[in-house]
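Subject: for your reference before the review

Hello V.,

The reviewers asked for a structural picture of the protein, and I figured it would be easier to keep everything in one thread rather than splitting it across files. Below is the amino acid sequence we used in the manuscript, unchanged from the supplementary table.
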Amino acid sequence: MTLATTTPPRTSKGGPTTIPAASSTDEALEREFSEFRESAVRLIERVTDLVGPSGDPVGAAQADLKIVRSIFGKWSADLLLALHAVPSIGFEELRRSMPGISPRVLSMKLKELEQNGMVQREIIDTRPPRVRYSLTQRGWTVAWLSQPVFLFLRLTDRGPRPEPDGAPTLGR
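And here is what came back from the structure prediction:
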């Protein structure tokens, strides 16, 4: 794996494409992510030794897919990222920070994440009562474990680059 560089390959007139040598930063990043990957593999092996291997690999893969769809499905990832950025937030403030989501869908997704143990709902004893949402310890763990994955994907992005003056946008 070679990390993507921000400079395109150079071509000589009529000649073959020459790819610039990887910078020391790229090599250091590649080394760091390789060490992280190996560390993750060792963790999985230790946990598997503790709990035992899955007797049904297809069932385990289906369970993983269900988790991914539930936790990282439409709006769920947005909610987790919003709660990661602002650790405690009210319903309306959260709704305003996520243009395009209806109050009904927001409520449904928050309940789903609460059932999954990712989000906690705290009722504030005021008149009228208010509600604040925050990540649980499990939610924070998932957020922090996701950070290296997102960082890796951003740094090794092979897709089209955003315009230099344009800010990245979240698409639906």
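For the response letter, the relevant points are probably these. The two ends are 30 Å apart (CA to CA). Confidence is low (pLDDT under 50) at residues 1-20, 167-172.

Happy to draft the paragraph if you're swamped.

O.
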